C-alpha cells in the first residue's frame, strides 16, 4: 500500500507532498485509523533517561514540526515521538524551493530554516493530542535572534514546553540557521548548557517533575571535537545526546540531480558518518550518557547497527519517507534480534 502511496506523493513537489502527508496522518490519527496501515511492532520496552519507551524506535524531529500529527504517527507503532524544531515566535523559514529528493541515493536535502508556527501553536497541538507515550519536544532559536542571545530563545522555549514534554531536545546542529552550529563548541556550548541545566533545576522544583535534556549534534565534527562535546555534556549534567543531524557533506550523492543544492543532507548517504559519531561518543562517554542515534536508517539492520555501535535508542526520518511505516516494525525486529548485552 505504501509503495503506491509513495508513487503518488512523489509526483508532487517534496514540500507539497510533506504537507499533504502530515494532513492525512493527522486526520487518520484523529479518526484512529492509522493503526490499520501497518502491522504493529512487537513490544520491546526499554528504559532510557529514566523514561519507559514502548520500543527503541522513534520518530525524529523535523517531520512533524508543529505537532499536527502526533496521534497519527503514534498509531504507526513508534516507541516515541519527537516534534519540532520549534522556535519562540512563528517564522516562515527560508525561501522555497527548500526541500529536494534524491531518490537514487534514498536521500533528502533540506534548507527549511526552522519554519514553524511557534511554540504556542505547538503546545496547543500537544494538549489536544490523545497520545500518552514518550514525547520529545525539539527547541531552537529564531533566525533573527543574534547567536550571542540564543540562550534567551532556548530558555523561553524550555520554560513553555517543560510541563508538556517527556524530554526536551536542544537543537544546536541545524545547518540552515546562520551561526547556529557555532553553539556546539567551546565556551559558547558550555555557557548554553550551564544555563539550560540551571533552568532545568528551577523548573524541576516549580513543576515537581524532572524533564531530561538531550543535545542534538552535527555529524560534521572531527573525532576530537566530538569527544570535547561529549565531555562538556557530562560536565554540565545533560541527560542524553542525539547523533546526528544532517550533514553539509555530499559524499554518496555527487553528480545526482539536486546534489549541489545548499542545505543539510539526510538519508542513506549520512549513515556511516552518523554511526561513526555514535561509536566515538560511546567510547568517550563509557555509558555515562545515553546516545540516541539518527541518520541513514533505511532498513531494519541499520537500526540494529546503531544500537550495536553504542546507541540506546534510534530515530528515523528520511527512511520513513522512502520506506513507509513498515520500517518501524522492521527496525524493532532487527534490534530485538541483537545478542543481549547482559
From TrEMBL:
Q: Which reaction equation describes what this protein catalyses?
A: (S)-dihydroorotate + a quinone = orotate + a quinol
Keyword Chloroplast carried by entry: no
- State where the protein is found: Cell membrane
Active site residues of this protein: 174 (nucleophile)
Q: Which residues bind FMN?
A: 61-65, 85, 138, 171, 216, 244, 267, 296, 317-318
- Cofactor binding mode, per the note? Binds 1 FMN per subunit.
Cofactor(s) annotated in UniProt: FMN
Secretion signal: which residues? none
Q: Which GO terms describe its biological process?
A: 'de novo' pyrimidine nucleobase biosynthetic process; 'de novo' UMP biosynthetic process
Q: Which Pfam families match?
A: DHO_dh (PF01180)
Q: Which PROSITE patterns match?
A: DHODEHASE_1 (PS00911)
Source taxon at top rank: Bacteria
What Gene Ontology cellular-component terms does the record carry?
A: cytoplasm; plasma membrane
| One term of GO molecular function | dihydroorotate dehydrogenase (quinone) activity
What pathway is it annotated to?
A: Pyrimidine metabolism; UMP biosynthesis via de novo pathway; orotate from (S)-dihydroorotate (quinone route): step 1/1
Domain Dihydroorotate dehydrogenase catalytic as annotated: residue spans: 44-335
The catalytic activity of this protein is classed by the Enzyme Commission as 1.3.5.2
Q: How does it sit in the membrane?
A: Peripheral membrane protein
Name the positions where substrate binds. Answer: 65, 110-114, 171, 176, 245-246
Cross-referenced Gene3D superfamilies, in alphabetical order?
Aldolase class I (3.20.20.70)
* Keyword annotations of the record: Cell membrane, Flavoprotein, FMN, Membrane, Oxidoreductase, Pyrimidine biosynthesis
The entry sums up its family as follows: Belongs to the dihydroorotate dehydrogenase family. Type 2 subfamily.
PANTHER family associated with the record: DIHYDROOROTATE DEHYDROGENASE (QUINONE), MITOCHONDRIAL, DIHYDROOROTATE DEHYDROGENASE (QUINONE), MITOCHONDRIAL-RELATED
What HAMAP family would the database entry show?
DHO_dh_type2
Recorded protein name is: Dihydroorotate dehydrogenase (quinone)
**Protein species of origin:** Pseudomonas xionganensis
Amino acid at each position: 500500500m505504501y509503495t503506491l502511496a509513495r508513487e503518488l506523493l512523489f509526483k508532487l513537489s517534496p514540500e507539497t507532498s510533506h504537507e499533504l502527508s502530515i494532513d492525512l496522518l493527522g486526520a487518520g490519527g484523529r479518526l484512529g485509523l492509522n493503526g490499520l496501515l501497518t502491522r504493529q511492532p512487537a513490544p520491546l520496552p526499554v528504559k532510557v533517561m529514566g523514561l519507559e519507551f514502548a520500543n527503541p524506535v522513534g520518530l525524529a524531529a523535523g517531520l512533524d514540526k508543529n505537532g499536527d500529527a502526533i496521534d497519527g504517527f503514534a498509531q504507526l507503532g513508534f516507541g516515541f515521538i519527537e516534534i519540532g524544531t520549534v522556535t519562540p515566535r512563528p517564522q516562515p523559514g527560508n525561501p522555497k524551493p527548500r526541500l529536494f529528493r534524491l531518490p537514487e541515493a534514498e536521500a533528502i536535502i533540506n534548507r527549511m530554516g526552522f519554519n514553524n508556527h511557534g511554540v504556542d501553536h505547538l503546545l496547543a497541538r500537544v494538549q489536544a493530542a490523545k497520545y500518552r507515550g514518550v514525547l520529545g519536544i525539539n527547541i531552537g532559536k529564531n533566525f533573527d535572534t543574534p547567536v550571542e542571545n540564543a540562550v534567551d530563545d532556548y530558555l523561553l522555549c524550555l520554560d513553555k514546553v517543560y510541563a508538556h514534554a517527556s524530554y526536551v531536545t536542544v537543537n544546536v546542529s541545524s545547518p540552515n540557521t546562520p551561526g547556529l552550529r557555532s553553539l556546539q563548541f567551546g565556551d559558547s556550548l558550555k555557557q548554553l548548557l550551564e544555563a539550560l541545566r540551571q533552568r532545568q533545576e528551577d523548573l524541576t522544583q516549580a513543576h515537581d517533575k524532572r524533564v531530561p535534556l538531550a543535545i542534538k549534534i552535527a555529524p560534521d565534527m572531527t573525532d576530537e571535537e566530538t569527544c570535547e562535546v561529549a565531555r562538556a555534556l557530562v560536565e554540565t549534567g545533560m541527560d542524553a545526546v542525539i547523533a546526528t543531524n544532517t550533514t553539509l557533506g555530499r559524499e554518496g550523492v555527487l553528480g545526482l540531480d539536486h546534489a549541489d543544492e545548499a542545505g543539510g543532507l539526510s538519508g542513506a548517504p549520512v549513515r556511516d558518518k552518523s554511526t561513526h559519531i555514535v561509536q566515538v561518543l560511546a567510547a568517550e562517554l563509557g555509558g555515562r550518557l545515553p546516545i540516541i542515534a539518527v541518520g541513514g536508517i533505511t532498513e531494519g539492520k541499520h537500526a540494529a547497527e546503531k544500537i550495536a555501535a553504542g546507541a540506546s535508542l534510534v530515530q528515523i526520518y528520511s527512511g520513513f519517507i522512502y520506506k513507509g511505516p513498515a520500517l518501524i516494525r522492521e527496525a524493532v525486529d532487527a534490534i530485538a534480534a541483537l545478542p543481549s548485552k547482559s
